[in-house]
Amino acid sequence: MSNNNLGSGRGGASPYDDDTSSTSTTSAGSPIPDFNASNIQLSTVAPAFGISSSAAAASGLQTRQPDYLDYDQKGRGIFSIMCTNSGISYLVGVTIGGLYGLKEGLARTPSSRWKVKLNSVLNHCGRHGSGLGNMMGASAIMYSLYEGVADSFELDAYTGPIQPPAPLFAGMMTGATYYMRAGPRVAALAGTIGLGAVGGTFALYSDQWALLMLRWKNRLGQQRTRVSSAAADKR
């Protein structure tokens, strides 16, 4: 009578049991298969799922490479900076000019009637606001263009301790260009004023100018020391 384990609760022997003494395992004579998926090439099995090998390679299934973020050391482009600067400058100019026009419109109204006051305020706000906004917007466009030109030609490599030279160059050229129709003297004066305005702004909000002044003082002190020592040697 054969030994049948069905229904006994013990179950039959399996070729994948850990017991090496089992007759089924020894009769099979094959090792337990390894189901580790780390060695599987996804590009190889991709056609089985309806994905072509080229699409698998393009999607990164074949070789996974690390993703790198693009970083532009130069920052934003010249036209992006120009649009931002001109828009902000125009809004600031319109606001300041509008407030000044409101004051002038209320002070110079020819009548105390409400409609006449409103008309006077609107006229003065439109006149002063648009004028100052257009001037500041145009100045911002020229300043941004000149600053971009200075950065493209890398003027900082030729100015030595004067860093950064691009804003100074842009301020000088903006003033000179804006008043160039008034003559060379007025243009030169406007360029000097623009240079001084930008330089003063950087002197207030940048530590580089303080370091530059210290360098100049140190150089002047060294020159004076050399001159005094040379005069003492001659004596």
Question: Can you characterise this structure?
Answer:
This protein is mostly helical and 235 residues long. The protein is 63% helix and 0% strand. It is built from eight helices and no strands. The protein has helices spanning 23-28, 42-45, 53-58, 78-107, 114-152, 165-178, 184-205, 208-234. Helix 4 (78-107) runs antiparallel to helix 5 and helix 6 (165-178) packs antiparallel against helix 7. 15% of the residues are buried. The model is unreliable at 1-12 and 16-27 (pLDDT under 50).
The low-confidence runs, each spanning 5 or more residues with pLDDT under 50, are 1-12, 16-27
**In percent, how helical is the residue content?**
55-70%
Strand content: under 5%
Count of DSSP-assigned helices: 8
Shape: flat
Rg on CA atoms, Å: 40 Å
Order of helices and strands: HHHHHHHH
Separation of the first and last Cα atoms: 134 Å
SSE-based structural type? mainly alpha
The major beta sheet can be summarized as: none
Overall pLDDT metric = 76
**Got a strand count?**
0
